[in-house]
Amino acid sequence: MMITGCLVLAVLPGEPAAYASCATEARVSPYAFIGTVIDTAEEDRVATVITDGGRQVKVVAAPNTSWFSKSFSSVDRRYALGGRYEFHPINAESPYRDNRCTATQQLAGPSLRPLESTKEFLPDWLPVDEQAGFVGYLMFFGSLAAALGLSVIVGRKIIRRIARRGA
Length: 167
Prior knowledge:
The protein is α+β, with helices and mostly antiparallel strands. It has helices at 2-11, 133-166, and strands at 33-41, 46-51, 56-60, 84-87, 96-97, 105-108. Residues 4-20 have low confidence and may be disordered.
């Protein structure tokens, strides 16, 4: 059994994690065009592009647009502002749909900027870069003390019941 598992692992191709959910080769599109990204939104997953033909179009590089800024998928593509791309969208008209499983590639221009970490999804009251303060310590140690006190009370009642049965 162990030998079979090792053989399976040895035969599997090693792909980068970002491409793990693309089941096939990169898709070349019949609707391909070349253009330059002049604006990005939604953490670089929506690009406004000027095509070489002079049209301004939108390219959306996330499969589920209702979850923008809340989650990422392994097939989301990001675009570099000012980058020149050969786009291979899934559909024939703007807004074009794209993802990491298509043959879209950057031809020239700047690299992607790293995503900035954000605290916007944490509650406002949660102190992230500072000590918890009196209220935070009270919440933590107070709940521990309450749990310990409850355990002592329940333990004493159990011991008293056992002592009454034995007497």
